[in-house]
């Protein structure tokens, strides 16, 4: 806990100024809330990210989307199957390259995204509450710049493997799928 100076202002201690610790605390706070808010979607957070990409009409097929999100291609296939079964997305031939399939949001998917996005904005506001609105906007922009640069320097092509590396005992076994699906 930070010390308090004579003026009553907080004086941060060494831990409070450690980048890894501060990022971890903010990340955990956001993830706990966000995971609850996207749990109704197939695939939870990953499903939400796919839905965002589909709503935004991001270019590229499902392979490019898997790479961008750091999801193994086979996991992406199952995730898209589940999102399609829920009526949230469709795979359509890419007009630029008919060998590829584009992931497109359905009307139901757009409605689910709008509802979920609204609830996530409230969660973000809660996490960023100590910042005034201008600082929130600046924080988001600076974080976006850092994330884009970090991803371009060292993209994570398989977040499943990353999770296993971070906590191999906390990873549930992969579900088995039958050939009949």
How does this model look, in words?
The protein has 181 residues and is mainly alpha-helical. It has a domain at 41-166: Arc Repressor Mutant, subunit A (Orthogonal Bundle), CATH 1.10.10.10. Helices cover 57% and strands 10% of the residues. It has helices at 19-37, 44-56, 62-69, 73-85, 107-127, 133-153, 159-166; strands at residues 3-4, 10-11, 89-94, 97-105. It has a two-stranded antiparallel sheet. Strand 1 (3-4) and strand 2 form a beta hairpin. The longest helix is centred in the middle third of the chain and has 21 residues, at 107-127. It is globular, with a radius of gyration of 19 Å. The model is unreliable at 171-176 (pLDDT under 50).
Biggest sheet descriptor: 2 strands, antiparallel
Uncertain runs: 171-176
Mean pLDDT: 83
Number of helices: 7
- Report the structural category: mainly alpha
Structural shape: globular
| Range of strand content | 5-15%
Rg, nearest Å: 19 Å
* CATH overall fold name of the domain at 41-166: Arc Repressor Mutant, subunit A
CATH architecture of the domain at 41-166: Orthogonal Bundle
| CATH superfamily caption of the domain at 41-166 | Winged helix-like DNA-binding domain superfamily/Winged helix DNA-binding domain
As laid out across the biggest beta sheet, the strand order is 1-2
What is the CA-CA span between the terminal residues? 52 Å
Pfam families: MarR_2
Protein name: MarR family winged helix-turn-helix transcriptional regulator
Domain HTH marR-type: 16-148
InterPro entries: HTH_MarR-typ (IPR000835), MarR/SlyA-like (IPR039422), WH-like_DNA-bd_sf (IPR036388), WH_DNA-bd_sf (IPR036390)
